[in-house]
Amino acid sequence: MSTLAQKKGFGATLWDYLTTVDHKKIAILYLIAGGFFFLVGGLEAMVIRIQLAIPNNDFVSAGFYNEVLTMHGTTMIFLAAMPLVFAFMNAVMPLQIGARDVAFPFVNALGFWLFFFGGVFLNMSWFLGGAPDAGWTSYASLALESPTNGIDFYALGLQISGAGTLMGGINFLVTIINMRAPGMTYMRMPMFTWSTFVTSALILFAFPPLTVGLFLMIFDRMFGSNFFDASAGGNTIIWEHLFWIFGHPEVYILILPAFGIFSEIFAIFSRKRLFGYSSMVFATVLIGFLGFMVWAHHMFTTGLGPIANAIFAVATMAIGVPTGIKIFNWLFTMWGGSITFTTPMLYAIAFIPSFVMGGVTGIMVASAAADYQFHDTYFVVAHFHYVIVGGVVFAILAGTHLYWPKMFGTMLNEFLGKITFWLFLIGFHLTFFIQHFLGVWGMPRRIFTFLPDQGFETSNMVSTIGAFFMAVAVIVMLINVIMTSIKNERVGNDPWGDGRTLEWSIPSPPPFYNFKQLPLVRGLDAYWIEKMDGKKGMTPAEPLGDIHMPNSSFVPVVISFGLFVAAFGAVGIGDKEAYGIPVLVIGFLITFGSMFFRSVKDDHGFHIHKEDLMNDDDKGGKA
Amino acid sequence: MANHQPTSGNPRVDIEYRRKKNKEEMKHQVTSFSLMIFLTLIAFFAVGYGYSHWFIAPFIILLAVIQVIFQLYYFMHMSHKGHEAPSLFLYSGVTVGAITVLAFSTIIWW
User: Fold this and answer.
1) A13, A90, A301, A465: which has the highest count of C-beta atoms within 10 A?
2) Given an 8 Å threshold on Cβ–Cβ distance, is A296 in contact with B96?
3) Residue A32: left if φ>0, alpha if ψ -120 to 50, beta else—which one?
4) Which tens digit of pLDDT belongs to each residue from A165-189?
5) Is A241 in Cβ contact with B104 (below 8 Å)?
6) What is the CATH number of the domain that holds A401?
7) In this structure, is residue A582 part of a structural domain?
């Protein structure tokens, strides 16, 4: 009865994905959309590196360079890293806690489509007069002066996709609090689920400041208010604070799921339970907590005064402690383990030194006095690429290899995977290690070119060569994905052989109801416990019965599309165009009309009957 | 959660206990309701009497906070069991908001 086995036309498959509320299919949508934006952001990175390869280069103009640089940062953070992380959360977290779906499947779909239309809207700016050009932080004093509509697209696009992310976060929280399988206590949850939980809490608290900041920016740019305009009594620093109150938790929103993925990988491929599980949980929660106390370390040179700078510097350094706990726990997990060097494990092992280097430079820039030297130089660029690429991107690539069989039912090629790994690792260090020195030698960040004979030529060329290594690595990975999909060799429940958590106890990909009978969880690493007791699968916690499932719905796409239209109207109003208000109204009518439709139309879902579930017992669909 | 009326003939439901519980509950609600009305009167009085603005504004905000707490705990049942997660998130949100206000009022505006 596998839905995948049925032959379906392209149109039917497309419609299936447009209307799906299944967390596994939404995960695939996040993976595709996030992967696409990752390629776009990567392309922008290549433009940056080509422009900076030689002094006085004129590959792109200064204005276009600013747009590319801004869109590289914005795309990579909001439209690539976050959705890719969300892809794994959606694909794996409900399976890890033994749930049949997330708590609000409809809202889950809505969250994805809001993110997608927000991202598309942001990128429409390329074709409609010019992309945003004030940096991904879009500091108000720059942003308010930007002549094109780019910043408008930035503020509106992020507002829409941010709403989607917030919905996703709330959904995950409710799912983890309410839908754990019998026996799955908080302290038995897999580390990835824990990091999803803390990340979702961070999303819940961090996105409202961004929403506020973006609304103020929208009002200032499009509707004539003066929140950030100092000449009219506003204060440009407010944007910086609002942005970083969101922005600093945001980087933990990215890195915590990465930590979660690596925790799973270290345990699986060392064939040991995670060392110091409870201290890992503690460290994750503590990082999440401290993440809200440190935002002003991005603004040391703004002139906050020595007391504020000192407080934020000390708070920032304190985060090194829980992070250090985690690093040691991963090392001790490997210690004495029976390690297999699969592709995900290679990424995990390379992650430790790479990320620690980013952490060490983090302590350096956290020292407020020293930061006056480092601020706005390539040293900072090197630092955050070391933590984001060395942490988040490594985790995303590792997670892609680790969870590909669970999501698609077929294994990515290990040989090509290792080629990707080595090319990417070498390229990454080649690109960014030298940038520490460039920064200390005095190369400012966000400049579109540099002069010859300042000692920057060789280093910039090295950096550009490294970027090409990473580009080739990603191309090899794409080839790998295409080859694997064409071959399509099916795999069983536990393709890595050493799966420890619930997701590996069910078929790959899981049936659309996930668990025929909810599993009984007897401890941490539930599936591993059953394996060690000589059992083939999980013990069911309930008799076989009817399963209640939600119906598919096209409404999330329509709701999101309405906001997409309304955003064009808002840009028009900012330009004093006649079409502005009608388009805005039409957009909101579409959105609220479809929400109204959803509210009045009763949709009780459907049941999979017990008899239908009994038929395919022989196909290994047992919980 | 604990407020479900005894339904059907389930013999395991201790009606006496439920009744006692409900009675206590009612007492708490009436007490907090009268307190809330009293606090509202004080607020009106404070404004009407014409104290300094520097006293009235914080004082009314304080009263409002107390009222919100009454509302949450006695009328929205946060005092009952099973509300640990909502209270955790409520208080975390309040903390984040308070830090933001603190930062804005100390290092941006003054």
Assistant:
1) A90
2) no
3) alpha
4) 999 999 999 999 999 999 999 999 9
5) yes
6) 1.20.210.10
7) no
